[in-house]
Amino acid sequence: MGIRPALPGDEQAIARICVLTGDRGADASGMFGDDRAIADVYALPYLYGPGCFALVWDEGGSAVGYVVGTDDTRAFQDWFVADWWPSRPTREVQTEADRWLLPAALDPERMLTDLVDEYPAHLHIDLLPEAQGRGAGRALIEAAVEGLRERGVPGAHLVAAKANAGAQAFYPRVGFVPVSEDHSSVTFARRTSGG
To answer: Residue 187, SS3?
Structure first.
């Protein structure tokens, strides 16, 4: 039981975890016309993109959680729009959730906030319910932050839905502070040194 780098064989497990936690921490199965769409936006590109990393929490042969991210949000966003998203299956809007996910994936400015200069890295972390509350999330975050520190990256940010009460409580406990918000989400940031 513990953290290891993601392997090519983990792609299906990572996609599954993303779907099972994709509705503000709850199961998003059936929300999208294609369940895999959410993983193609928020999880799987981090196995392949520039400056990316992927760590999994493994409890005996299968990933039950992950932290993925990139050390360079600008380079990642350019690659996502130019290379990754066009290589994914064509998807049509079929559900209410598709109405926000699919246009967002096409938006070349989606991740380019004012924060990327000060906090150039960004992360996504998801754990299945059976892996929550036992230190896995904290361990994954600390491993990701240490990896970014070793790369010389000054800080990381992430976004959580306001409706995701678990995430809103978790991120401050692992050193992330709220730095901005809108009607539906809060952006948290953390320096890679000084905890």
So the answer is: strand
CA 140/CA 103 separation, integer angstroms: 30
How far is it, in rounded angstroms, from Cα 178 to Cα 54? 24
Question: 78 is written with which tokens?
Answer: 């350019």
Structural domain span for residue 19: 2-153
Please tell me the total count of domains within the chain: 1
Which two tokens mark 188?
């948290």
Q: Sign of the C-alpha dihedral, residues 162, 63, 16, 45?
A: positive
Taking only Cα atoms into account, the Rg of the chain, rounded to an integer number of angstroms, comes to 16
CB 75 within 8 A of CB 54: no
Residues in the chain where the model's pLDDT stays below 50:
195
The DSSP H or E segment spanning 189 is: strand 185-191
CATH of the domain at 146: 3.40.630.30
Rounded to the nearest integer, the mean pLDDT of the chain is: 95
Summarised one tens digit per residue, pLDDT across range 6-51 is 998 999 999 999 999 999 889 999 999 999 999 999 999 999 999 9
* CA gap 139, 135 in Å, rounded: 6
